[in-house]
Design brief:
- The complex is a heterodimer of chains A (116) and B (113).
- Chain A has no helices and eleven strands.
- Chain A is 0% helix and 53% strand.
- In chain A, strand 4 and strand 5 form a beta hairpin.
- Chain A is an all-beta fold.
- The N and C termini of chain B lie far apart (38 Å).
- Chain B is globular, with a radius of gyration of 13 Å.
- Chain B is mostly beta strands.
- Classes of the chains: A mainly beta (116), B mainly beta (113).
Chain lengths: 116, 113
């Protein structure tokens, strides 16, 4: 049981290059999310997927696209990378807890992206 | 407009003493509040949560207090241990939003032996 896995762990891009960040979870969760964390700041939601086949914009979606490939996998694509997208990217999946009905998120280890 | 704020970027306490981390929010529609803990080079991990209809939730050394009228919550860690040194994020969510969470900027806790 690996939880949430992300690849790659670290990537350097040049401005204008494209790449896809991969995320997979093995917990059978319906909801999945992509966040970015900049230094000294909290996590900001880029996109989320409430269930297989649906995706919605979060707080900072510009410059990104997502694909919910199946229940397990949720990828994030940068079509034309910019230095402002230098950040740490976290994928998460979520389940509603039995007690209290709160949604608890399980995070991957993150992808560190540097755009030159 | 930042809906969840953690006004203290850092906190340092002595081992064995109490750590109190604070969080303020502006959106009265939030139904749940959560605390996550993050070590360097790892993803955040869930610590404890509280429903907006409660004012206290306790789990071992960790207790979260909610003051809904003041739109304020706090996380108490008693006693603090060196292994508690980490960044703590406060987060809030609404019941109908499929788990979407709004995070504060985090507080770095250092527990000195």
């Amino acid at each position: 049981n690996a939880g949430v896995t992300q690849t790659p762990k670290f990537q350097v891009l040049k401005t204008g290059q494209s790449m896809t960040l991969q995320c997979a979870q093995d917990m059978n969760h319906n909801s999945m999310y992509w966040y970015r964390q900049d230094p000294g700041m909290g996590l900001r939601l880029i996109y989320y997927s409430a269930s297989e086949g649906t995706t919605d914009k979060g707080e900072v979606p510009n410059g990104y696209n997502v694909s919910r490939l199946n229940k397990r996998e949720f990828s994030l694509r940068l079509e034309s990378a910019a230095p402002s997208q230098t950040s740490v990217y976290f994928c998460a999946s979520s389940v509603r807890m039995d007690v209290g009905r709160v949604w608890t998120q399980y995070f991957g280890p993150g992808t560190r992206l540097l755009v030159l | 407009d930042q809906q969840v704020k953690q006004n203290s970027p850092s906190l340092s306490v002595q081992e064995g003493r109490i750590s109190i981390l604070n969080c303020d929010y502006t959106n009265s529609m939030f139904d749940y509040f959560l605390w996550y803990k993050k070590y360097p080079a790892e993803g955040p991990t869930f610590l404890i949560s509280i429903s907006s209809i409660k004012d206290k939730n306790e789990d071992g050394r960790f207790t979260v207090f909610l003051n809904k009228s003041a739109k304020h919550l706090s996380l108490h860690i008693v006693p603090s241990q060196p292994g508690d040194s980490a960044v703590y994020f406060c987060a809030a969510q609404q019941d109908t939003n499929a788990g979407k969470s709004t995070f504060g900027d985090g507080t770095t806790l250092t527990v000195k032996p």
